[in-house]
Amino acid sequence: MPERRRGLAGFVLNVWMSLFVLFLVAPLMVATLPAFDGSSGASAGGAKGFGLHAFSALFADDRLMTGLLHSGLVGLAVVVLSLPLGLAGALVLDRLAGRAAGLLFAALIVPILVPGIVVGLSTLIFWRELGVPGGLLLAVLAQTSAAAAYAMMLFLVRLESFDPELMEAALDLGASQSLAMRRVLLPHLGPTALAAAAVAFLLSVGDHDMTVSSIGSDWTLLTEIAARLRLDPTPAVDAIGVLFVAATLLVAGVWVALHHRTRPRPGGEADRTRHPTSRRGLTT
Amino acid sequence: MTEVGRTYGARIALGLWLIVGVWLIGLVLAPLATLAGRSLSTVEPAVMTQTLEIDRLQDEIAAMRWDWERSVDAERRADLDRRVRMLTDRALRLAAETREPPTVWGLANYARLGGLHARVLLHTLGFALVVTFVTFGACYPIAHGLAFATRPRRAALLAAALVVPYALNQILRTHAWAEILATLGLAAPSRGGPAEADPRAVLVAMVHASVLFMVLPIWSALASLDRRLIEAARDLGASPLRIHARIVLPHAGRGIAIGAAATFVLAAGSHAVPRIMTGGQGGDWFALLVWRRVFEAADWNVGAAYATTLFLACLLAVFALMRLFGVRFADLVRRGGRHA
After folding, report:
1. ipTM greater than 0.85, yes or no?
2. What's the whole-model pTM score?
3. Which residues of B touch A213 (CB under 8 A)?
4. Which helix (H) or strand (E) segment is B103 a member of?
């Protein structure tokens, strides 16, 4: 079918894809503009021209800088907590079968099946009754419940390609169970741990709804930006937009570069081998 | 359970179960149970009036003490003393009665979900459904194009265009959309100026927010389709349309269910997107209503009831979609059926 898809249908699909790409990247292009032209309506003071002053305003802004620190700390804490949780969940679920496994799996991924505000709010209400007020700690816990679920799913996908007989072989050769786990199973999961850490960190830094409903009077970079954009847009916030887009494009460049290097072969099969869920037979 | 112990050894298995138990109870079940419990409890109104009465008595006592200090007449001072003692007694008695505020269990908080608020809930869920359909319509051809791409370079480019915008965080992305749509005259200007709620603006931003979650599962499902089935159908004389309806579309079902569920939940529960796109004025979104109940009206129990309603609605939609397309949770991470 793909080889013969020509003519009108192919043309329409091409046009649609072009429009779609334009739709996808449009916000990226716009987010950078206000910081430089200095003309966006409410950007304080009416300073015009190439607005590098926005960047100095950003670094002089205590709340934004503290927010950046908070975001980094919360992100690290979420990574540190969600990796062991996700790994333990995946190792257990991988060895369970039947109805119990389905139920446990469903229960553990509930935090990513419901709106962020519900997750944040339930965390806040629960811990407040135990005497823990809203703050960075509760934001960490709310985000961890979602990040751990994603980490677990990534580990489970990876475990699909693990041959259990390798563990048995190690045990037959006299390895203790913990040694076999350290030397055989965990190395196999290594690359996934890296991916899960990245997902957890990005989820934490980029999350708004869960964070804002559990963080009390504290703040992260994102909740601060959200509050400011609404009430008091300053050049500093515009500058943040530029930095975010720059970081985004950098990551994208690296991603595309890596992609080009690892693409196995041209043709329709490429998509299949590229997608993580179809990575099989890589156990050796 | 024994299988876990057999594979990893008893000690490690115990540790794993312990971690999973702490996770399941501490981060998922206990918070949700507390939310549900809170939603079912109300403080008896009588207690509220008693508290108010105590406040009023204390005000009165303070005023009398002030009078006492400024009075030189001994008789008047004695009179004030007597009245202060009397009022203090009454306040203490009331305080003793109300030290344990009786909690009433029931559906009173849910009963508040009538009239306008019920309309907002239905509007939100209906709107999320529209977002889901629009996103599916926009994304299905793209996922199809990715899965059957003949030119891998273009597929890589498209994949990059899909992923990259998500690195820009949700808040800045939504604000960028507000700017674009304001320029096009579609939405409220996000910076200054009067804001008007235009649901089409919310729709655009919500569709943009869910594209990745719709394309990836459908792409993944279609990529696993055995191409020989299509060849066989074509050799047997089926038209491209018929091949699509009978082979390709059904195979994409699992991906469609997952993508639609993700999109629906994102749209129904989004708090930031409607707030930004309507300049903070949007009243027609349920997540905003939950927010206002809890953080602005300080009405935690009713807020908990609304949050629980949203939670149940989303969970119900997810289960309904899964059932409709015959998808099980295990399919989220597995292709094979080891957990048959």
Report:
1. no
2. 0.78
3. 271, 291, 294-295
4. strand B103-105
